[in-house]
Amino acid sequence: MTDCCKYLGYDTMGEFGFSQSFRLQTKPDNDLLVEAVTATSRQAGAYVQYPALKQLQLEKPLNGKGNWMRAKHLDLMSDLVRPRLLADKKSQHDLFPNSVDAEDPQTGHRFSESELWIERAEPTSTAVTAAFFYLSAYPGCYTKLASEIRDTFFSASEIRSGPELSQCQYYRACIDETMRMSPPTSGTLWRKVCPGGVVLDDEYISTGYIVGVSPFALHGNEDLFPDLYVETRAVDPLCGQTAFSP
């Protein structure tokens, strides 16, 4: 299920971003993409937690395979982006025109070919995989969700963004509770303490310090979320919404 959802996520984002699928669901040619993105994400995660580590460049002697996969990944992304750069940027209805025209207002920097690929397939595939897992573990929730969707739409082709889907509150509640249980992005949400300091858990934190907590740890706090999987929690304003940070 995990692999199937990953392939679906990458193919969808390829179409959404550049009107081109990676064909991961039908061919093994580009399977390296998933491994390369995973290796890159691990490296980036370590650098976010400890930026000085990047200066040491320990990954070069310790992770030769990861470096090779990253290079192949960047080559694949360049091959994907280059044809779109040569064609009319508005020839397709995708995100490419917005990305290629983006510019840092302070530095004037624009994205390179390899940077134009925004790796957002992993959070999507993680959320979809987790949703299937919890719905299979809680058949009562699945039955209620299936009834809501089938009462709203008469065929699979009708299911799309719009007012009908927005009215499916139980569907949204299941998604939100899934993201609480298994946050697609579990990195620490760092915040800088403002002038005057702040008191957290009876501890005074001085101005200028960086503090944060992982969403996975926050969402697993039993004082805030006492029950394991409560799909109606997301539609109840009294059920920990202030601590909900997927």
Short description:
With 246 residues, this protein is mainly α. It has eleven helices and four strands; from the N terminus they run H-H-H-H-H-H-H-H-H-H-E-E-E-E-H.
Structure explained in plain terms:
The structure is a single chain. This protein has 246 residues and is mainly alpha-helical. Helix content is 50%, strand content 4%. The chain has 11 helices and 4 strands. Helix 7 packs across helix 10. The mean pLDDT is 80.
Number of discrete helical segments: 11
In total, how many beta strands?
4
Report the major sheet: 2 strands, antiparallel
Q: Pick out the low-confidence regions.
A: none
The end-to-end span amounts to 22 Å
Strand order of the largest sheet: 1-4
Taken in chain order, the helices and strands follow as HHHHHHHHHHEEEEH
Please give the share of residues in helix: 40-55%
Computed Rg = 21 Å
| Chain-averaged pLDDT | 80
What proportion strand?
Answer: under 5%
Shape: globular
Derived from helix and strand composition plus strand pairing, the structural class reads: mainly alpha
Features:
246 residues, mainly alpha, two-stranded antiparallel ribbon, two-stranded antiparallel sheet, 11 helices, 4 strands, 50% helix, 4% strand
List the helices and strands and how they pair.
Blueprint: H1 2-18, H2 32-49, H3 53-56, H4 59-62, H5 64-86, H6 96-100, H7 121-137, H8 139-152, H9 163-166, H10 169-181, E1 191-192, E2 198-200, E3 203-205, E4 210-211, H11 215-219
Antiparallel strand pairs: 1-4, 2-3
Helix pairs in contact: 1-7, 2-5, 7-10
